[in-house]
Every structure is written in C-alpha cells, then in structure tokens.
C-alpha cells in the first residue's frame, strides 16, 4: 500500500510544509537495486587506540572496492562512519566516541550508515572494560534517532577470533539492503566464514524452504532468496494455491501446498524433502503466521490456539523432525520471523505477542545446540511493514504505526527479505542466536 503522506512530504510543496509545521519527515531510503555499488562514496574508518578490528575491516572494505579514508576534506560527504571501539577499556576511553563523531556527524550523506564495532561484554573479564563496551549500545541507538535523513546506526559486537567473519555483516549494513534496519545490536562469534564466490549470488547451489510464501513478506523472501541464487520451495496452505503457484513460477522454484498445523504435516514435509534430489534442505525460513486479534478478556480459546499453533508450534515441530532426521546439513540456516509485538507487546494481541516472543525464545534456546552441528538459527522481528494486512488497519492507527520510528515510515516486505538473506548467506556462518528488528528503529520496545 502506498504511503501517501510520505510521497507528499517528499514533494516540493510537502517539504516546505513539513519543515514549517514541524511534521514527521520521512526520508527517501536508499534500497538495493541490481548493479548497485556497496556504497555510493568513501567510508570514513576510525579506531580507538588499541582497537583490533580497524586493520582487518579496512582490508575487507578495500578488497570490496570501497574507498576507505581516515579524514574528510571540507565539503566532502561520506557514505558511512565506521568506528572500531574495541580498544576502549574503561569509561574514560568513551571520550573517543565523542572525538570521532562530533566533527564528522554532519559529513554523512543522506541514507548514510553508522557502524560501531565492539567486543561482546559477556566475553570480557574486566568489569571496567565490559562496562565501557556495553555503553556503546546507548551511543548507537541515540545516533540512529539524531542524525535523520535516512541515516541508520548499528552496533556490531565481534568476538575475538571473529575478525575474518565480519564481511557478510559489513556488506549488509553498508548497503541498501539494510535500509529499514537501525538501532540494532548484532553479535558475530569467533570462527571463520566461507567467502562466497560471488557476493551478488551468495546462495548459489542452496535449497531454501519458505513457509507462508504465497503473498506479502513470504513472497518477497522467496524472490530475494532466488535472486541470490537459491532454489526455493515455496510452501503455503492449499487455499493459497493460485498465489503460491505464481510465486513459484516467478522464482523458478517449486510450490508445496501443505497446512503445517496438521498432525502429520511435519512428517509429510520431512518425507518430501528427504525424497528430493538433495535429500534435505539448506535454508528453512519460518515465515507462516496469522493474527486473530482480541483483548484476552474477549478472546475465544480457538483464537488463542490457532495463533500459537501456526506461529510457534508448527515451526517447533518442523525443526524437531528435520533435525532429528538429519535433513538440515552442517552449514544450514534456520530463520524465524518474530515481531516487534513479541518484544514490546501490543494491546489486543496477547496471543500473537506470546507466539512471537516464543519465536525469539526458540532462537535463543536452540542456538547453542545447533552451533555444535554447524547450523545457525536467527530471527527477524519486523515492525510496521506495508502489506495487505497492515492496509486493513484503521487509518489513525496505521499512520501512528508508520511514524513511530526513527525513519518516520513503514518498511517494505523486501526489507524483511533482505535481512533474512543476510542471515542465510554462507558468509554469516558465525552469526547465531541473533534477533534483528526490521522496524526503522521503532520507538516502542527495547
């Protein structure tokens, strides 16, 4: 659905009125298109004394064709500000954050990127250093709310030993693929990650299963994974058969009509995958979801059970049987679709928020177990995304949903899909147990 206010605000008359009246100012976001460079200008890379990441990161960026600089001549705009803050070991060192960002805050171009690199506090022995590293979260979340003009800000905690595994994350965050992701904290664990032969098609040779793929976010996920080289099995309920076939045809994939809430559905799915030429599946995206909204006092038991069944119990059963039968190999990826409602809650959605908080719990509980098998599990948590579902929301609530974030607009299904494709990449091998909100840095929730 078109955001008429955003279109008006970006017109000549609209810009004048927005500025004069102090109205929300949704910027035009830089999203990825085929053939786009990673960034549109130079990247300013700085480091606190003793930082361990600026060297490897500078080398990775240069090899990716990015012009890296440590200063900006007057009047020159940069595409990104990247700061290696791993050398900050106590609160006095936090002055380095001010010294880096204060002079360069106005040098970013529209839809620029801010990335701060730190060390996961939970891996640090020194209380002073752990405290200083935890402080970085407040900085990046505040910058995401301050800079405006479509600028996004992220904190990437890189564990010692993960220096060479950060390229996939940097490519995602610097590019237009992360347009609607801001204010996030991402953890990259120690270890090595394969480098795709072609970063434009990192999923070549992979088989991906996408549930709820007939329309909206699910259809966008299928298209983006196919664009990145994966063969896609698009799964949805039989009632969505025609739309599902359209998605399968558009992605040159396969359509599978199956209601995953059925008592034998997980076994049927496992049998289907086992009988395929690969004998399994590399990427599983649990996107299927429903809402049945009522306040809990007015909610029927059927509404509660159906939402929990589709959104949480079905992914649990599918994971269990695919893992039990060894149908997800080492290097496999599982990605869940949670929601900002699972983080912040939402009036009239106790069932939905419970199920989506459960998806987050599923990621956190499975991550250490799957790491032992070389498999990762992560989740996205979308905020207000422009879909047929959100188009049915009353206009007042819809406008509030669009504006209550740092980017003052709703996201698009492709924003969720791009984030999932990043999780699915072979280059994201040490990204495990993360929940990344695709919400334009919503003002609600943590």
UniProtKB/TrEMBL annotation:
Any one Gene Ontology molecular-function term assigned to this protein's record: oxidoreductase activity, acting on the CH-OH group of donors, NAD or NADP as acceptor
Domain Ketoreductase: 206-383
Assigned protein family: Belongs to the short-chain dehydrogenases/reductases (SDR) family.
Tree of life domain: Bacteria
Protein name (record): 3-oxoacyl-[acyl-carrier protein] reductase
Biological classification of the source: Bacteria, Bacillati, Actinomycetota, Actinomycetes, Micromonosporales
InterPro entries with a match to the protein in the record: KR_dom, NAD(P)-bd_dom_sf, Sc_DH/Rdtase_CS, SDR_fam
Residue ranges of the TM segments: none
Alphabetized Pfam families for the sequence: adh_short_C2 (PF13561)
Species, as recorded: Actinoplanes derwentensis
